[in-house]
């Protein structure tokens, strides 16, 4: 059975629109064939929307487009908002109704810039995607194609949740051609762009969308293949779970996933799905598996497609299944899977025969407390945030943030109180703490343990305040501990576990870690972060004075707190760093038989030990 | 009024409907049934795509009650949940007019059963009113016909928008369960069955659940609950469970919600319901198993995980 003719026309149209992006094209074909929804994640300008548009145009189906923006409201998505006023007794009844809009009639939807939508406005839309049903009745929807920026580029919106992205069975990541190692495609694009002759327009194929899907529905799924499909997804779920990430859901692996599997077979002209079609899973991973694990997941898929995937090796711990339900409440320990070569060098801190008292970091934590508390992470007003609260309109100047419908109503007939004002807030605009831990060769034995204790104390203090934390180990170079690709996070447990692993190698530089910390704080776009620098020596590599970093810290209003782990005199540089940035400087000292951090000097009065009880 | 036996049969048919639409999740299905029977609210938390919403919807439809489904979202307005606003305008003598705002009951206020999907997404102000409504079963001073609310939610994670319900709010839901996905479960069989049924197109999908039960049957069942005896031994065992939670697992006011309302009053009703569903005339110690559907978010996780053990010890 050859690939259905409409499909080759679809491919021609896609190729005409965009150079390269083979995977994304395949993904779109799979989605249309399987009648599933597709999500294209990629940096701006890589052709996501163009590709989606080309697919829509070639499909000849009726299309509805939504470009999301920060004010997108649920009602807008369903259709136009109508204010229905009906007489009711002596007064009138006011009701907001959604009239069925373009979405109610279209077979294909284009949801552009999905990440811009306030995450929550999407909930009803995503339910419609899943159920293909609107409050007004059944929808003719076949596929929705959404585009989205990768998370590091999408600053203006709250992150979409896995639950929301799960509706998109097909999901792929696109990369710009310009940044790919192989420049062949970039060259093709360049020559095409510089070609003066007008491009041949591809006529809309006007192929009924239904004819595409028909071929896929009839594909047979042999039982052994189903078992392999299940085994593959269980392995992928295990992989993601080990990294503390959400993973594939029951829903997507069953009906929608099988539809994609069938589509993959149909695309390759098979009337019965074969092992090679397990590769369909590749097009379902982008937002389900953290980016760092994508290649590992793809290897699993390749092995499965080659028939070489052994059944799941290790079973999950009893009682705690692999599902994503290990949410915040259960707070199960999570660990970012370290890169293979790095993990080889890590070793847990050796347990001591006589376990000494843990270092007393209370004074450091107490001294920091006033400062950390000020940075307590709470929701704060933010123009790009989500409308969280309603407040009365106090002046007309605020009208821009008023609820539009209510504002219009108010203009027609004022009422006490006036229209509600949407107060936009965003969480996690609060405090941020970067822990910089020296792991140079001199940090061995007791010092490593002490550093681990200090890190643990600070992480717990930050956790209480729900601050975002970043953890960077450094010697001559800085090695940030990333969680899902992010420097700042709130995975305190994962961080504590990571800080328990230690090594000691290389020479000390302040320049590299401070730069990572400060650039990270800068990217958060907030003033007044905290940096705690744990070290046992002065820099011997890089700029010994870290002059540029000090200037940057002042510019960002970041405080650098320094902790010197050593019996010698505290290096003046550490005192300077702290004083200059309004931070605190501590030194480890023996106090009544245990290590304690004592303030060296700092702009804030620090109570003496006795007074602290 | 149908006989108790007939009513029990109808309730079992609800379970059959659930099985027709959803593979696995036996506990959640049982708990849903119990919620319908005992007129208690139930909260299901689980990862995306674990069939929470589907179960809630099927149970709602199969129950044959007047039901209201609402997908909560960040822009949820109160009016959408409880009914439209009525503005009453009345000219005042001497100029001007009096404008008063009332609510025309609708939504939850007129339903017997409501499904609140993604409950943790609603803005605080809507949620507060909503949860009070669930608790008091009153809108203003007027009683509402609500019997059972089924709420679902995804687990909360720091980086996302939804926020955990606070414990007091969670306490409104007598029954609380985690619904884990089948894919990652230790036992592969349910996931395999799900796939096989999906591949064969044998999983009822967009078809609607039939209303196999009705209000009369539920009324009869509810009335029958009062006749289920609660022996002293079971009451003692229940107190012993609470004692163990306190003494051995350190449950206290700061980390747990072992309220009198839930554990001394509602628990009895649920125990009766559980016994009645099994066709027993008196509560047996085996029925104490329902306690683990109450402790999910009310005690620390370590304690909740040991509930089966604790119940087995006192039984």
Q: What key attributes describe this structure?
A:
heterodimer, A: 613 residues, alpha/beta, seven-stranded mixed sheet, globular, B: 315 residues, five-stranded parallel sheet, two-stranded antiparallel ribbon, 42% helix
Please give a structural write-up.
The complex is a heterodimer of chains A (613) and B (315). Chain A is α/β, with parallel strands linked by helices and 613 residues long. Chain A has helices at residues 5-17, 22-34, 48-59, 74-78, 122-131, 162-165, 184-194, 209-217, 223-242, 250-253, 255-267, 294-305, 340-343, 362-374, 404-412, 446-464, 492-500, 511-524, 547-556, 572-581, and strands spanning 38-41, 63-67, 79-88, 91-100, 108-112, 133-134, 137-138, 143-148, 170-173, 347-348, 380-392, 420-426, 432-438, 468-474, 478-481, 501-502, 530-535, 559-564, 585-591, 594-601. In chain A, the strands form six sheets. Chain A has a seven-stranded mixed β-sheet with strand order 15-14-13-17-18-19-20, with helices on both faces. Chain A has a five-stranded parallel β-sheet with strand order 2-5-8-1-9, with helices on one face. In chain A, strand 17, helix 19 (547-556) and strand 18 (559-564) form a beta-alpha-beta unit. In chain A, helix 9 (223-242) packs antiparallel against helix 12 (294-305) and helix 18 (511-524) runs parallel beside helix 19 (547-556). The longest helix of chain A has 20 residues, at 223-242. Chain A starts with a helix and ends in a 12-residue tail after the last strand. Chain B is an alpha/beta fold. Chain B has helices spanning 4-21, 26-38, 52-62, 78-82, 124-136, 167-170, 189-199, 215-225, 232-247, 260-277, 301-305, 307-314, and strands at 42-45, 67-71, 85-91, 97-103, 113-117, 138-139, 142-143, 148-153, 175-178. Chain B has a five-stranded parallel β-sheet, covered by helices on one side. In chain B, a hairpin with a 5-residue loop joins strand 3 (85-91) and strand 4. In chain B, helix 1 packs antiparallel against helix 2, helix 1 (4-21) packs antiparallel against helix 3 and helix 2 (26-38) crosses helix 10. The radius of gyration of chain B is 21 Å and the shape is globular. Strand 4 (91-100) of chain A pairs antiparallel with strand 3 of chain B, so a sheet runs across the interface.
């Amino acid at each position: 059975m050859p690939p259905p003719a409409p499909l080759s026309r679809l491919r021609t149209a896609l190729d005409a629109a965009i150079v390269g992006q083979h995977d994304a094209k395949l993904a779109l074909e799979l989605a249309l064939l399987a009648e599933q929804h597709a999500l294209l994640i990629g940096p701006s300008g890589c052709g996501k929307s163009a590709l989606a548009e080309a697919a829509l145009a070639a499909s000849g189906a009726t299309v509805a487009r939504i470009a999301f923006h920060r004010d997108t409201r649920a009602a807008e998505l369903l259709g136009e908002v109508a204010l229905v006023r009906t007489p009711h007794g002596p007064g009138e009844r006011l009701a907001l109704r959604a009239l069925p809009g373009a979405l109610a009639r279209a077979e294909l939807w284009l949801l552009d810039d999905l990440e811009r939508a306030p995450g929550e406005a999407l909930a009803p839309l995503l339910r419609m995607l899943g159920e293909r049903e609107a409050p007004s009745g059944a929808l003719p929807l076949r596929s929705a194609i959404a585009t989205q920026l990768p998370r590091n580029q999408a600053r203006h919106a709250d992150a979409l949740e896995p639950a929301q992205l799960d509706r998109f069975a097909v999901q792929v990541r696109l990369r710009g051609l310009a940044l790919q190692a192989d420049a062949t495609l970039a060259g093709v694009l360049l020559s095409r762009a510089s070609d003066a002759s007008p491009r041949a327009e591809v006529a809309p194929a006007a192929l009924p969308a239904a004819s595409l899907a028909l071929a896929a529905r009839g594909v047979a799924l042999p039982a052994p293949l189903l078992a392999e499909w299940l085994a593959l997804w269980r392995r992928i779920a295990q992989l993601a779970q080990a990294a503390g990430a959400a993973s594939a859901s029951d829903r997507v692996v069953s009906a929608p996933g099988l539809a994609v599997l069938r589509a993959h077979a149909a695309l390759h002209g098979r009337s019965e799905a074969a092992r090679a079609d397990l590769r369909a899973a590749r097009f379902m991973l982008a937002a389900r598996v953290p980016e760092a694990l994508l290649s590992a997941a793809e290897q699993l898929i390749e092995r499965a497609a080659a028939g070489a995937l052994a059944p799941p090796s290790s079973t999950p711990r009893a009682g705690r299944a692999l599902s994503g339900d290990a949410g915040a409440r259960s707070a199960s320990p999570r660990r970012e899977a370290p890169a293979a070569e790095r993990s080889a060098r890590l070793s847990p801190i050796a347990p001591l025969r006589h376990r000494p008292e843990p270092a007393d970091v209370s004074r450091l934590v107490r001294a920091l407390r006033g400062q950390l508390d000020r940075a307590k992470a709470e929701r704060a007003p933010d123009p790009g945030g989500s409308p969280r609260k309603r407040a009365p309109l106090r002046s007309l100047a605020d009208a821009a943030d008023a609820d539009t419908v209510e504002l219009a109503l108010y203009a027609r007939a004022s009422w006490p109180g006036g229209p509600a004002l949407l107060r936009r807030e965003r969480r996690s605009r609060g405090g941020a703490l970067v822990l910089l831990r020296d792991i140079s060769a001199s940090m061995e034995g007791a010092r490593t343990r002490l550093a681990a204790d200090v890190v643990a104390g600070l992480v717990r203090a930050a956790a209480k305040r729900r601050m975002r934390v970043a953890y960077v180990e450094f010697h001559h170079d800085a090695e940030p501990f990333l969680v899902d690709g992010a420097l700042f996070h709130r995975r305190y447990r994962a961080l504590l576990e990571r800080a328990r692993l230690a090594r000691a190698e290389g020479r000390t530089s302040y320049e590299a870690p401070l730069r990572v910390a400060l650039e990270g704080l800068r990217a958060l776009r907030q003033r007044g972060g905290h940096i705690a620098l744990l070290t046992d020596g002065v820099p011997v590599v890089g700029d010994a004075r870290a002059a540029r970093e000090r200037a940057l810290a002042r510019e960002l209003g970041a405080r650098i707190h320094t902790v010197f782990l050593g019996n010698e005199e505290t290096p003046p540089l550490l005192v300077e760093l702290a004083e200059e940035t309004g931070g605190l400087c501590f030194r480890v000292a023996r106090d009544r038989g245990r290590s304690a951090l004592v303030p060296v000097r700092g702009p804030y009065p620090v109570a003496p030990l006795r007074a602290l009880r | 009024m149908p006989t108790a036996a007939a009513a029990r049969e109808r309730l079992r048919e609800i379970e059959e409907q659930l099985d027709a639409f959803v593979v696995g999740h036996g506990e959640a299905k049982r708990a849903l049934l119990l919620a319908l029977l005992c007129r208690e609210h139930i909260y299901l938390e689980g990862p995306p795509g674990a069939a929470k919403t589907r179960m809630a919807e099927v149970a709602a439809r199969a129950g044959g009650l007047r039901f209201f489904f609402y997908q909560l979202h960040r822009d949820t307005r109160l009016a959408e949940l409880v009914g439209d606003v009525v503005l009453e305008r009345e000219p005042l003598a001497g100029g001007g007019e009096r404008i008063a705002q009332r609510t025309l009951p609708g939504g939850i206020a007129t339903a017997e059963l409501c499904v609140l999907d993604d409950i943790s997404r609603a803005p605080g102000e809507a949620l507060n009113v909503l949860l009070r409504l669930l608790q008091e079963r009153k809108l203003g001073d007027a009683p509402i016909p609500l019997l059972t609310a089924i709420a679902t939610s995804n687990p909360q994670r720091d980086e996302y928008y939804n926020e955990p319900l606070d414990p007091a709010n969670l306490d409104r839901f007598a029954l609380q369960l985690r619904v884990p996905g089948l894919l990652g479960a230790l036992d592969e069989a349910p996931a395999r069955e799900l796939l096989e049924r999906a591949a064969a197109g044998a999983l009822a999908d967009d078809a609607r659940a039939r209303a196999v039960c009705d209000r009369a049957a539920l009324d009869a069942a509810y009335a029958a609950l009062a006749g289920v005896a609660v022996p002293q031994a079971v009451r003692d065992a229940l107190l012993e469970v609470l004692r163990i939670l306190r003494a051995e697992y350190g449950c206290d006011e700061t980390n747990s919600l072992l309220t009198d309302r839930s554990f001394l009053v509602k628990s009895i009703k649920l125990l009766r319901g559980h016994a009645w569903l099994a066709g027993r005339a008196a509560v047996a110690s085996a029925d104490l198993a329902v306690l683990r559907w109450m402790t999910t978010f009310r005690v620390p996780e370590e304690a909740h995980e040991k509930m089966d053990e604790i119940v087995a010890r006192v039984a």
